[in-house]
Write the structure tokens for this entry.
Amino acid sequence: MSGSEGLERIRGEVLDLVLLDLRMPDMDGYKVLEELQKSDDLKDLPVMIITAADLTETEKRALGKNVKGVITKGRIDRSELLARINKFLYGPERTAYPRMPKVSAGGPVKILIAEDRHDNMILIKETLRSTGYAVYTATNGQEAIDIAEKERPDLILMDMQMPVMSGFEATRQIRETEGLKDIPIIALTARAMKGDEEKALAAGCSDYLSKPVMPKDLLRKIEVWLRY
Ligand code: MN
């Protein structure tokens, strides 16, 4: 978006951080920074600058004290950018994912894991337990449905390839069941199974994560879905 569109959006919302490109049409990043400084509400809003060319130290100092970092395009990939943002938002000493209270009105947040591979199950279960979630487990789709009906989990992690009943079929049935159909379901897909991501979404999964599951990615994704 352009500088003036960006400024309009900044004014309309309560933000934690702005990523600001210095070179934009109609109003450049310098002008946006200047406008932010004029506003009492916005002058302390943290900004990270994105720039195509390296800035000199003098140029960096001239950016203002609300500028918390400068990212040079091409020097940083997507995951590094996310790491920088996380580090800023949650602090260097914290892990890269946000920690949210794990206690909802009725007690700890409940997560159901449906996974037929024992080693995957252990890894996921330990990751979730150590973070404070209440964990329920199933080893096939039918069991997942039964436990979901009984426990009403806040979120389901669903392996797609399982015996007896696949994750695809279990998800379809959950989406047709009153009281269960709004539960976020994150599909666990095998990288080797091409097209499983799309099939999982088509079956009604909210999102997917490809295996092998990395604990940080898993926790981050869960937090995202628990916010809704
Ligand atoms: Mn499986």
